[in-house]
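[step 3/7] fold_predict: job queued, chain A
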Amino acid sequence: MNRWFVYLLECADGSWYCGATLDISRRLKQHNEGKGAKYTRGRLPVKLLVKSGKMKRGDALKLEAKVKKQRTRELKKALVLRS
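[step 4/7] structure written:
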């Protein structure tokens, strides 16, 4: 059941948001309609920067938490691209 993705978005204010989902296009649409995460609602529009390969739900949630703990953008992006 490797169907989950971790993704990074860039918000209109230049900040980044990390999330996990089963359907990237649906989730991106939700974010841009203001129905996504509270963080992104006031920072629209958002665009997809990178997404991971498919993985199990538990692995995706662990990676999402790990990415959110990183301080630099380069490390965040590298973690998502490596998986």
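[step 5/7] annotate
The first strand starts at residue 5 and ends at 10.
The two ends are 16 Å apart (CA to CA).
exit 0
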